[in-house]
Design goal:
The chain is built from two helices and ten strands. By secondary structure, the protein is an alpha+beta fold. The chain has two domains: about 80 residues, F0F1 ATP synthase delta/epsilon subunit, N-terminal (ATP Synthase, domain 1, Sandwich), CATH 2.60.15.10; about 45 residues. The strands form two sheets. The chain has a five-stranded mixed beta sheet, with no helix packed on it. It has a five-stranded antiparallel beta sheet with strand order 4-3-6-7-10. Strand 6 and strand 7 form a beta hairpin. It is elongated. Belongs to the ATPase epsilon chain family. This is ATP synthase epsilon chain. Produces ATP from ADP in the presence of a proton gradient across the membrane.
C-alpha cells in the first residue's frame, strides 16, 4: 500500500512488530522524529524511550533501549538492543524494581557491582518516564 509505511521492530530476543502502519515516532538520539510513508532516507541512533506506532487511529507504545533506526524507500526498520511493549508492564512492578535497583546501587561494594546497579537504575528510570508519557 502506498499510503502505509512498512515497519519492522526487531530485538535480539524476537521480532516485536512487522507490518504496515500509518506513522511511527522514534526516540532518536538527536530528538524524536516521525516517519511517514515515502520518508527521505535517514539512519539514527535510538535513545531510551517510547517508540510510538500509530495505525488506524490507535497508538501502540513500545519501550526501546538503544539500537538503530533505518529509514529507506522501502520503509522503517528499528534494530533495538531491548524492546518491551509498555502495555505488558505494570507501573507498580517497575516502581518496586527501581527501588530494589537503587538499594543495590547504595549497597554495591565493587566498581563492577556499582556499574551494573547504575545501568539497572538508569534503564528502569527510562522505562518509568516512557510509561508516564
Amino acid at each position: 500500500m502506498a499510503d502505509k509505511l512498512s515497519f519492522a521492530l526487531v530485538s535480539p530476543e524476537r521480532e516485536l512488530f512487522n507490518g504496515d502502519v500509518d506513522h511511527v515516532v522514534v526516540p532518536g538520539a538527536e530528538g524524536e522524529f516521525g516517519v511517514l510513508p515515502n520518508h527521505a532516507p535517514v539512519m539514527s541512533v535510538i535513545k531510551p524511550g517510547a517508540l510510538r506506532v500509530i495505525n488506524d487511529g490507535a497508538e501502540r507504545r513500545i519501550f526501546v533501549n538503544g539500537g538503530f533506526a533505518d529509514v529507506t524507500p522501502e520503509g522503517l526498520t528499528v534494530l533495538a538492543e531491548e524492546a518491551v511493549d509498555l502495555d505488558d508492564l505494570e507501573a507498580a512492578t517497575i516502581e518496586q524494581d527501581l527501588k530494589n535497583a537503587q538499594e543495590d546501587l547504595r549497597d554495591a561494594n565493587t566498581d563492577a557491582k556499582k556499574d551494573a546497579a547504575q545501568r539497572a537504575v538508569t534503564r528502569l528510570e527510562s522505562i518509568k518516564a516512557a510509561m508516564a508519557r
